[in-house]
Amino acid sequence: MTTLYYYHKDFLLHDTGLGHPENQDRLSHINAALDRVEFKPLKRITPVLRQDVLGLIRLVHTQAMMDKVLQKVAKEHYIPLDPDTLLSEGSAHAVQLAVSAVCDAVDKVNDKQANNAFCAVRPPGHHAEPDQSMGFCLFNIISIAASYALKLPHIKRIAIIDFDVHHGNGTQAAFANNADVFYASSHEMPNYPGTGYPSETGVGNIVNVPLVSGETGKQFREKYRQQILPALKQFNPDLILLSAGFDAHKDDPLASIQLDAEDYLWLTQEIVDIANRCCEGKIISVLEGGYNLYALAESVSAHIAVLMKS
Ligand SMILES: [Zn+2]
Question: Would the pTM of this model clear 0.90, i.e. be above it?
Fold first, then answer.
């Protein structure tokens, strides 16, 4: 079986300006790492803009918020949606292409054209709430993918595992009342955005596992073993989506958790094992954060190498 790798050069058109941690170099470093011979079997896909992309975005977001993000931006201007979240001339195109890529991955994995997929998209998405872009995120791409997948035949229950070091407040907001979607997140607290307490459980479908500054891979793994992985198994999803952020790495500048690439490898293997038992291995992994370029490239490589062996 195949692992799909989605990338489009137009993801680089989302320009966040000088010195922003969420910049184009992130994808260039990932692509350079994936040039290695062991990644040759990846099936590389250049996504195309879907005709139904606005309808897909509307599954999660309000029209007013969509209008704001999709407005025309002049070449020489940046429009701030919040202090960290900028719109450039190419942002609207880049984010619609990212949504198209991830939904195409849902189709192909669901049709068994591939075992799983990794989508190297920008901008990230998990902070975007149904009515508000924030935290580097324009639209909530993983939530759009989940909402889309739920409309396909044979997909009744979806699990989203979010191992980005920040809480996916937007994803939680999108599904807090939807028992068909399980959302589990591990995230440093206190840190941006400030949500993600264990008491936030939705309708029993949400598991929040805070991490403490300085926490190591050993403690991280224990929390997954004790809390997230058993809950995922019990939920028994028809499809697993990953909000794959790599900013819990020890070298990441935006957080202070002490993971290394081996920890991402371990976690990916654990999730693959569960996916093989509950949903024929169907996983779609979507890039979120990760801001040390070298740590990001190494961690994504470890993650994809496991997906390819599944
Ligand atoms: Zn993050």
Answer: yes
